[in-house]
Structures are given as structure tokens and as C-alpha cells.
């Protein structure tokens, strides 16, 4: 069974923010993630079919680490989503138009190799690293 034939269960990720209004503006408005339940301490977002939760926390003590991938310094930890190429291009342009400061500008990595993918990295307003990627064919998601 290929990945296209499977129903993938949504993942859940909780991450720190120090301003829920800014989280709503970034995730809800800029990235277009509908808001779910919320309280004074957290907000659920539908992150492309997955549940992410912005929890109020002290974001001043971030430890940043990077690994080299395709000659770029990839921030660790990070989270993200795999889109189709058309949606990836639309989102990349939306982020450019919004003046997003990319950690790694949108580009295609591993060109001509198994796992060739479009990717981009940026931080949310709280220092959480996000990667959005796309493949010409989702069947190459786990290609070696």
C-alpha cells in the first residue's frame, strides 16, 4: 500500500508561545490554520489537518541547534508539513509577500536524487522553527 492509499492519522504537537494574539495572527491569519478550542493559556490550530497547540510559556530560554543538510544550517528542533507542490508555491509566495524572514529560503534540495523536495524554513514569532516541504510525487517521501 502506498502512502497515497493510506489514511494518515493526524499528529498532535504542543509548543511554546508567549502571546496568544500573536500566535493567532501568525498561525491563524498568515498560515491560514483554522482555530479550534482555546483557553486563556492555549489555542488549538488545524495545521493542514494536524492538531498543533500553542501553549503560553516563557520563550526567552530557547536553545538553538543546527544540522547541516544540503549545505544549509537546518534548525533543530523544527516541525512542519508536507504539501503538494502547487500549495507549497502558493504558501511560499504568501510568506514572501508578508515579508517573512526565511532561515532557509524556498528552494529545491537533493535535486536529481531520491527524495528531491521543495523546502523552506522560517521561525514563528516565538522562535519555533517550521519547515514546509513538498515533493513532485509523495511516493518519494521516504525514498533512500
TrEMBL record:
All residue ranges annotated as the VOC domain in the record: 9-135
Pfam families: Glyoxalase
Protein name, UniProt field: VOC family protein
Lineage: Bacteria, Pseudomonadati, Pseudomonadota, Alphaproteobacteria, Acetobacterales
Amino acid at each position: 500500500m502506498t502512502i497515497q492509499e493510506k489514511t494518515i492519522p493526524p499528529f498532535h504537537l504542543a509548543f511554546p508561545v508567549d502571546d496568544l494574539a500573536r500566535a493567532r495572527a501568525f498561525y491563524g491569519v498568515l498560515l491560514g490554520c483554522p482555530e479550534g478550542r482555546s483557553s486563556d493559556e492555549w489555542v488549538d490550530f488545524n495545521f493542514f489537518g494536524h492538531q498543533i497547540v500553542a501553549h503560553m510559556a516563557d520563550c526567552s530560554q530557547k536553545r538553538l541547534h543546527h544540522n547541516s543538510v544540503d549545505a544549509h544550517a537546518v534548525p533543530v528542533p523544527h516541525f512542519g508539513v508536507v504539501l503538494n507542490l502547487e500549495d507549497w508555491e502558493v504558501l511560499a509566495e504568501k510568506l514572501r509577500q508578508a515579508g517573512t524572514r526565511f532561515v532557509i529560503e524556498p528552494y529545491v534540495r537533493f535535486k536529481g536524487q531520491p527524495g528531491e523536495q521543495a523546502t523552506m524554513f522560517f521561525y514563528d514569532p516565538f522562535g519555533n522553527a517550521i519547515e514546509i516541504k513538498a515533493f513532485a510525487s509523495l511516493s518519494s517521501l521516504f525514498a533512500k
